[in-house]
Amino acid sequence: MTMRFRSLLMAGLLGCAGSVCLADDGPIQEDGKVSVPAFEMPMSDFASEAAGPYWHKITSTPGLALSEPIEKLRSFYDAMNTKRAELMRTMYDVDVRKETVAGVPVMIVEPAGGVTEGNRDKLLINLHGGAFMWGAGSGELVEAIPIAALSGYRVMTVDYRMAPEHVFPAGSQDVYAVYTEMLKQYDATHIGIYGCSAGGALTAQATAWIIDKGAPALVPSVPFVAPVSIMAGTVCSLTRFMRVARQFRKQVCRSP
């Protein structure tokens, strides 16, 4: 594995876990430090023409400092997500119901016409974003409604325990509890987990937790989805991650 590839791999796997994304050819020093030259990150090839201006709009909108009281942060972002969820409900026809699975609150989102015939034995589990501190409720629906409507799948969103009241591994434990309960109804290869931002990170954490606990592993083709992750004002797009992932496959999966 070349030094260049290590840099690429770390960039894809860590995303924006720090304040910067790793450069393609930045040499990794003995202490792990990587030099990052200036570069421009293009908008993802998967995005629509309208996505660029909208991305600029939302990233230019002032937010709240993380030092604000958690109640204020949650109220602020819940109001934002509620508007988005209401818009989703006007765009996509779905049915939503609340349930409790293994003691964990969840919401079930299904196409209004019912789950398509070929997907009735399959389940998608959504883990919402929100810096591990907010995003429950309306934030879950923003991520679940279009996926359920467009794919024809049943989507279960998980209201996992969040910081600052709860810390790791509380979220992973909640996902594990829901997942193992769902194994009573679905084959492991028919369950996928996805999430955005913090939910994408939690998807990776929970998948590792599931494997570590010896539960039947998820189908390996859908470990997590984290299209855009923001940390300290830096953005890593899905395009960059996909390029890294493809190079990882070439390097690691060459052997039969």
Strand-helix topology:
Elements: H1 3-14, H2 51-60, H3 70-91, E1 94-101, E2 104-111, E3 123-127, H4 138-151, E4 155-158, H5 170-182, E5 191-195, H6 198-212, E6 229-231, E7 234-236, H7 238-252
Parallel strand pairs: 3-4, 3-5
Antiparallel strand pairs: 1-2, 2-4, 6-7
Structure description:
This protein has helices at residues 3-14, 51-60, 70-91, 138-151, 170-182, 198-212, 238-252, and strands spanning 94-101, 104-111, 123-127, 155-158, 191-195, 229-231, 234-236. Mean pLDDT is 79; it is low at 1-24 and 220-256. Helix 1 crosses helix 7 (238-252) and helix 3 (70-91) runs parallel beside helix 4 (138-151). It has a five-stranded mixed beta sheet. Strand 6 (229-231) and strand 7 form a beta hairpin. By secondary structure, it is α/β, with parallel strands linked by helices.
Q: Uncertain runs with pLDDT below 50, 5 residues or more? A: 1-24, 220-256
Helix count, DSSP H or I runs of 4 or more residues: 7
**Mean pLDDT value:** 79
Percent range for helical residues?
25-40%
Widest β-sheet, arrangement of strands: 1-2-4-3-5
Quick description:
By secondary structure, this protein is an alpha/beta fold. The chain contains seven helices and seven strands.
